[in-house]
Specification:
Number of strands: 11
Oligomer: single chain
Shape: globular
Number of helices: 12
Structural class: alpha/beta
Order of helices and strands: EHHEEHHHEEHEHEHHEEHEHEH
Helix content: 40-55%
Length: about 325
């Protein structure tokens, strides 16, 4: 670290409760900022002292003020929000705070990487969007968040979420339980995303009323899905014929989002993925957008990003 560019600043927080949320348990959020930006942050009472190279100190200041603003607006934050603020710093710096695209029942949902922002904007502006990239990049979460937002605002009447149950193939009969119990394990990630958008009891009521439908891909055959927001997750495990079947369900006033990871295809080796096939067919068609995510967009545990990179060719 060059001594010529060393800078020190103090930030005073009037609300100790907000300060506790900013620093995290055992200063865990401050430690993340220190590791990412190579600064030192000291907590003394209601004051944070930041020391490091001038540009890094200013960056930390902007991020901390942004997090404080979110908390004052009633949002909650977690380690992913801290990581996202680091990735999205240019936007935070430019606008004073990042644009809030979506809101769930308990927090604002902001993009945590430039690719996430591109994906959200694509879903806002296109009738069919493909989000393609590795696990942990927020594809399914953001697709469900957009669907929940449109449902709450009355812009769509139904939210339909689907996945191919490829691990069970077409042989669900040998599994114990009724059909719902057989397929629910393959749809669990979709339920988990919904529970982050709505209280669990509300999710159950919306499912019971048919406003939200969660079903295996095979259940989409023969239907026309009108005035709905339709999500196909794990689309790399569809065949081209299944993908065609799904996409041609698009009805009046509906939108579709297709997500998947072409590096994790579970189909037989001789079978082409419907998602790979769609990439070739639809690249230059207006109103169809493709957004690609990379290992740098992983927003889970920091180690996940390193794992994804280690598996890259």
């Amino acid at each position: 670290m060059s001594t010529q560019s060393i800078s020190k600043i103090s930030l005073v927080f009037s609300d100790n409760h907000i300060l506790q949320q900013i620093v995290g348990v055992q200063n865990s959020y401050l430690k993340r900022l220190e590791n990412h930006l190579r600064v030192k942050i000291y907590s003394r009472g209601n004051v944070l002292l930041i020391q490091g190279e001038e540009h890094a100190v200013e960056k930390v200041k902007t991020i901390l003020m942004h997090l404080e603003k979110r908390l004052k607006q009633g949002d909650s934050i977690d380690h992913n929000d801290v990581e996202g603020s680091v990735r999205m710093h240019p936007k935070v710096q430019e606008e004073g705070s990042m644009k809030i695209y979506l809101k769930s029942t308990n927090k604002s949902i902001l993009p945590r990487s430039p690719s996430q922002e591109t994906f959200i904007e694509a879903m806002e502006n296109n009738e069919l969007v493909f989000g393609i990239g590795p696990a942990g990049t927020g594809k399914t979460y953001l697709a469900v968040a957009m669907g929940a937002s449109l449902l709450m605002s009355g812009k769509v009447e139904r939210l339909i979420l689907s996945r191919p149950a490829i691990e069970a193939g077409e042989r669900l009969g040998f599994l114990p339980g009724d059909l719902k119990e057989k397929v629910d394990p393959y749809l669990r990630p979709i339920y988990d995303a919904l529970y982050e958008m709505f209280p669990r009891t509300q999710v159950e009521k919306l499912i019971s009323s048919g406003t939200i439908e969660i079903a295996p891909l095979a259940f989409m055959r023969g239907r026309t899905l009108s005035h709905a927001y339709v999500i196909l997750d794990e689309a790399q495990n569809t065949t081209p014929l299944q993908m065609k079947m799904f996409l041609t369900r698009l009805g009046e006033g509906s939108r579709m989002v297709v997500t998947g990871d072409v590096t994790q295809i579970d189909l037989p080796s001789q079978q082409e993925s419907g998602l790979v096939d769609a990439q070739k067919r639809f690249k230059n068609i207006p109103s169809i957008a493709f957004v690609e995510f990379g290992s740098d967009d992983v927003v889970r545990h920091p180690l996940v990003s390193k794992i994804v990179k280690a598996y890259e060719p």
